[in-house]
Amino acid sequence: MKRAVVLSALFPVLVLAQASDTDAVLGQQLADKSVEIRRQITNPSGPAEPFKIIGNLYFVGVQNGDAYLLTSPQGHILFGAGYPDTGEGIEKNIIAMGFKMSDVKVILINHGHLDQGGSAQYLKEKTGAQVMAGFAEIPFLEHGGTLPAGTAIPNLPPAPQAQQPNNPGTPGPAPTGPGGQRFPPVKVERGLFDGDVVKVGSSTVTAYFVPGHSPSSTSFVFNVRDGNREYKAIQFCCWEYPEDIGRAAYVNEASVRRALQNLRKIGPIDIYMELGRYAWGGVVNQPGNLTFAERIENVKKNPMLMVNRDVFRQWTAAREVEFDRKLAKLKGTSPIYK
Fold this sequence. Notes:
CATH superfamily: Ribonuclease Z/Hydroxyacylglutathione hydrolase-like
CATH topology: Metallo-beta-lactamase, Chain A
Radius of gyration: 21 Å
Structural class: alpha/beta
Helix content: 25-40%
Strand order of the largest sheet: 1-2-3-4-5-6-9
Number of strands: 14
Distance between the termini: 45 Å
Oligomer: single chain
Number of helices: 9
CATH architecture: 4-Layer Sandwich
Order of helices and strands: HEEEEHEHHEHEEEEEEEHEHHH
């Protein structure tokens, strides 16, 4: 009898472990599909047609993605500001969906690269909105993607300094930080920390750090209302575990473990949206060898394709397995992990 009790107690643990392994395999398939779809986007900053994703959530960005609008009667939240040359297009898309620029009250930037902050200053001027971002993104955003000369970035190999053309012996501008290119600087009104909440009218957004892609790359979790139902959504940034994580400027075991712990707590997630449209849950989860354009058209016709609780759980499981594998590879070769 005692042995039977022990076996029955162990059985659920074994089942859970097997389910987690299955999730990791399926999640890697989703990740692979997103890479395949992304290759079809030949002009990431090119124009794209806006549309309602579901409920009070709208796509107003460009080919790659990068701009989403969460609306409420009291004002709207814009996620992402696109590339430096896409501000006017995002503005036109917001207006085309029937909304006023002046009703955008907050612009949330999930990391300090030019595909997210490129048109932040333009859209701030057009809306009067407050710009908010993870606190460690602020130096990059306020200096247009770079940092003042002499600023040290931990673990980041120094970029070669360009020589001024008329004075070959004099170093050129300070090297840019991760992400590389310049864009118009923008003043950030609020620096966000892990777990901070942003409210505009009936919309509530919670910020969660997933550092790696940048110092404090941030994912935003919020509810989307469609009729009498609410769905939990995440606008995610970013999975970034290079093969040699020991050389990654913003990846370390402590921050990754904290991020994964947070991601497990916030589930289940109904609507999964990564930075680019190629990685939306409703796009990668469609069966068959469809083109990117066909997948987007299917989402437009059937918004419920975006509602799938498996995607976020599976994708997270796959990335956790990936990180553990790369961490194990690092151990024994790094003085930190010996």
